[in-house]
Amino acid sequence: MEIINLGEQKSVLNQYIVEIRDQIIQKDSMKFRKNLERIGSFIACEISKTLEYKPLEVTTPLGIAQTTTYENNIVIASILRAGIPLHDGILNIFDRAQNAFIGAYRKYGKDNKFNIEVEYASAPKIEDKVLILADTMLATGSSLEVTYRKLCENVQPHYTHLVCPIASAYAVEYLQKHLPEEAITLWVAAIDEELTSRSYIVPGLGDAGDLAFGSKK
């Protein structure tokens, strides 16, 4: 699995990450969602550079212009609910893409141990397509692994891009061990070193779903 940390580059992406982390700016949920959307669009533009392109002629009012366009079929998938703004940002770039949504959550037992439960999955066929799987936070990597395997059950995407703006070092290592070595790239904007006893990223940003859509019961 290839890992690309866009946060190591000097770009406006770093400003978006600053703003989703800042506990004062976080109080504006609309701003929080907008920044996640902008992060999704930024990373989608980077992903677009890896696609397969073909030449194209387009007729303008004054003549013929020579250009290129990507020819891959794309499916954008996100883990509900924190992944929705990120999904929207990616869809802003790949507006012809098909879409998939997964309902996955942690079910805790004793000693802060948990299993990942998937209760909902709506997805088109992804075989031989470019799969873009988005989730805002990559803490342990287990949710993303379970979701990936659910989507790829008995089928094989042409290529998979994992979009996770903030990841833990533990999760990155976990995915390297548990996901295919080939035809998959993890795109992140920051990698944090620490996890709490309940597997939350430190410094992270808190609960992305709550910050975007309000607290749960």
Descriptive account of the structure:
The chain is of the alpha/beta class and 217 residues long. It is built from 6 helices and 14 strands. The chain has helices at residues 13-21, 29-48, 83-93, 142-151, 169-178, 208-213; strands at residues 2-5, 53-60, 63-70, 74-80, 98-108, 114-122, 130-134, 137-138, 159-163, 166-168, 184-188, 190-192, 194-195, 201-202. A 7-stranded mixed β-sheet has the order 1-11-9-7-4-5-6, with helices on both faces. Helix 1 packs antiparallel against helix 2 and helix 2 packs across helix 3 (83-93). The longest helix has 20 residues, at 29-48. It is globular, with a radius of gyration of 18 Å. It starts with a strand and ends with a helix.
Number of strands: 14
> What overall form do the CA principal axes indicate?
globular
Radius of gyration: 18 Å
Give helix and strand order, one letter per element, not per position. Answer: EHHEEEHEEEEHEEHEEEEH
Measured as a percent range, the helix fraction is 25-40%
Summed up, the helix count is 6
Which percent range describes the beta-strand content? Answer: 25-35%
What is the mean predicted local confidence, pLDDT? 92
Major sheet size, sense and barrel closure: 7 strands, mixed
The separation of the N and C termini measures: 37 Å
Read across the widest sheet, the strand sequence of neighbours is 1-11-9-7-4-5-6
Structural class: alpha/beta
Unreliable runs? none
